[in-house]
Protein backbone atom coordinates (compact mmCIF):
# COMPACT_ATOMS: atom_id res chain seq x y z
CA UNK A 1 0.00 0.00 0.00
CA UNK A 2 2.78 2.42 0.87
CA UNK A 3 3.27 4.66 3.86
CA UNK A 4 2.16 7.84 2.00
CA UNK A 5 -1.25 6.32 1.28
CA UNK A 6 -1.53 4.93 4.79
CA UNK A 7 -0.78 8.36 6.23
CA UNK A 8 -3.32 10.02 3.91
CA UNK A 9 -6.04 7.56 4.89
CA UNK A 10 -5.44 7.88 8.62
CA UNK A 11 -5.11 11.69 8.46
CA UNK A 12 -8.38 12.24 6.58
CA UNK A 13 -10.67 10.54 9.13
CA UNK A 14 -10.42 8.28 12.21
CA UNK A 15 -9.54 4.68 11.33
CA UNK A 16 -9.83 1.29 13.00
CA UNK A 17 -7.07 -1.28 12.61
CA UNK A 18 -7.88 -4.99 12.69
CA UNK A 19 -4.93 -7.35 13.11
CA UNK A 20 -5.60 -11.00 12.22
CA UNK A 21 -2.98 -13.52 13.29
CA UNK A 22 -2.44 -17.20 12.53
CA UNK A 23 0.02 -19.51 14.23
CA UNK A 24 1.57 -22.63 12.75
CA UNK A 25 -0.79 -24.89 14.71
CA UNK A 26 -3.88 -23.36 13.06
CA UNK A 27 -4.51 -21.13 16.05
CA UNK A 28 -6.17 -17.84 15.13
CA UNK A 29 -6.40 -14.60 17.09
CA UNK A 30 -7.32 -10.98 16.49
CA UNK A 31 -6.87 -7.51 18.00
CA UNK A 32 -8.95 -4.46 17.04
CA UNK A 33 -7.64 -0.92 17.62
CA UNK A 34 -10.09 1.99 17.54
CA UNK A 35 -7.85 4.94 16.62
CA UNK A 36 -5.04 3.98 14.24
CA UNK A 37 -3.00 6.89 12.89
CA UNK A 38 0.29 7.17 10.97
CA UNK A 39 2.20 10.47 10.75
CA UNK A 40 3.50 12.22 7.66
CA UNK A 41 6.75 11.56 5.79
CA UNK A 42 8.25 14.67 7.42
CA UNK A 43 7.93 12.81 10.75
CA UNK A 44 9.20 9.50 9.33
CA UNK A 45 5.72 7.94 9.39
CA UNK A 46 5.47 7.86 13.18
CA UNK A 47 2.89 5.50 14.63
CA UNK A 48 0.94 8.32 16.26
CA UNK A 49 -1.95 6.39 17.78
CA UNK A 50 -3.60 3.01 18.06
CA UNK A 51 -6.26 4.01 20.58
CA UNK A 52 -7.76 1.38 22.81
CA UNK A 53 -7.97 -2.24 21.79
CA UNK A 54 -9.83 -5.44 22.38
CA UNK A 55 -9.47 -8.98 21.12
CA UNK A 56 -7.84 -12.25 22.06
CA UNK A 57 -4.34 -11.62 20.64
CA UNK A 58 -3.25 -9.13 23.30
CA UNK A 59 -2.01 -5.58 22.80
CA UNK A 60 1.44 -5.98 21.27
CA UNK A 61 1.31 -2.61 19.47
CA UNK A 62 1.18 -0.51 22.67
CA UNK A 63 4.95 -0.26 22.93
CA UNK A 64 5.37 1.05 19.37
CA UNK A 65 3.22 4.18 19.65
CA UNK A 66 5.37 7.27 19.13
CA UNK A 67 7.99 5.36 17.14
CA UNK A 68 9.11 6.25 13.62
CA UNK A 69 9.10 3.82 10.70
CA UNK A 70 12.51 2.20 10.23
CA UNK A 71 13.78 0.45 7.12
CA UNK A 72 17.08 -1.34 6.48
CA UNK A 73 18.50 1.84 4.90
CA UNK A 74 16.91 4.36 7.29
CA UNK A 75 17.29 3.76 11.04
CA UNK A 76 14.74 5.94 12.81
CA UNK A 77 14.49 4.22 16.17
CA UNK A 78 16.05 4.96 19.53
CA UNK A 79 19.61 4.74 20.63
CA UNK A 80 20.39 1.11 19.86
CA UNK A 81 23.54 0.73 17.78
CA UNK A 82 21.93 -1.94 15.64
CA UNK A 83 19.31 -1.33 12.96
CA UNK A 84 16.32 -3.49 13.97
CA UNK A 85 14.96 -3.56 10.40
CA UNK A 86 18.23 -5.12 9.22
CA UNK A 87 18.54 -7.50 12.15
CA UNK A 88 14.90 -8.69 12.05
CA UNK A 89 14.50 -8.72 8.25
CA UNK A 90 11.75 -6.14 7.75
CA UNK A 91 10.64 -2.55 8.25
CA UNK A 92 8.52 -1.54 11.27
CA UNK A 93 7.99 1.16 13.91
CA UNK A 94 10.60 -0.33 16.23
CA UNK A 95 11.22 0.36 19.89
CA UNK A 96 14.16 -1.62 21.31
CA UNK A 97 13.42 -3.61 18.91
CA UNK A 98 9.81 -4.80 19.25
CA UNK A 99 6.83 -6.35 20.98
CA UNK A 100 5.31 -6.86 17.55
CA UNK A 101 6.77 -7.14 14.07
CA UNK A 102 4.21 -7.91 11.38
CA UNK A 103 6.59 -7.11 8.51
CA UNK A 104 9.04 -9.85 9.43
CA UNK A 105 10.26 -12.30 6.83
CA UNK A 106 7.51 -14.75 5.89
CA UNK A 107 8.37 -18.34 6.75
CA UNK A 108 11.37 -17.35 8.87
CA UNK A 109 11.37 -19.32 12.09
CA UNK A 110 14.75 -18.45 13.58
CA UNK A 111 15.64 -15.91 16.24
CA UNK A 112 12.40 -13.89 15.98
CA UNK A 113 13.18 -12.79 12.43
CA UNK A 114 9.74 -13.75 11.17
CA UNK A 115 6.29 -12.39 11.95
CA UNK A 116 6.03 -11.74 15.70
CA UNK A 117 3.23 -10.67 18.05
CA UNK A 118 4.67 -11.01 21.54
CA UNK A 119 1.36 -11.58 23.35
CA UNK A 120 0.35 -14.37 20.93
CA UNK A 121 2.57 -17.00 22.48
CA UNK A 122 5.91 -17.61 24.02
CA UNK A 123 8.69 -15.09 23.52
CA UNK A 124 10.19 -15.05 20.01
CA UNK A 125 7.36 -17.21 18.63
CA UNK A 126 7.05 -16.69 14.88
CA UNK A 127 3.63 -16.66 13.24
CA UNK A 128 2.49 -18.21 10.01
CA UNK A 129 0.45 -15.23 8.85
CA UNK A 130 -0.59 -11.71 9.83
CA UNK A 131 -3.11 -9.44 8.14
CA UNK A 132 -3.62 -5.77 8.92
CA UNK A 133 -6.84 -4.12 7.72
CA UNK A 134 -8.02 -0.56 8.23
CA UNK A 135 -11.36 1.10 7.70
CA UNK A 136 -13.06 4.30 8.80
CA UNK A 137 -13.95 4.05 12.47
CA UNK A 138 -17.55 3.18 13.13
CA UNK A 139 -19.21 5.26 15.78
CA UNK A 140 -21.85 3.71 18.00
CA UNK A 141 -25.23 5.40 18.24
CA UNK A 142 -25.52 5.19 22.05
Automatic annotation (TrEMBL):
SMART domains: FBG. Residues 1-138 form the Fibrinogen C-terminal domain. Pfam families: Fibrinogen_C. It comes from the Eukaryota. SUPFAM superfamilies: Fibrinogen C-terminal domain-like. GO terms for cellular component: extracellular space. This is Ficolin-2-like. It comes from Drosophila rhopaloa (Fruit fly). The gene is LOC108045977.
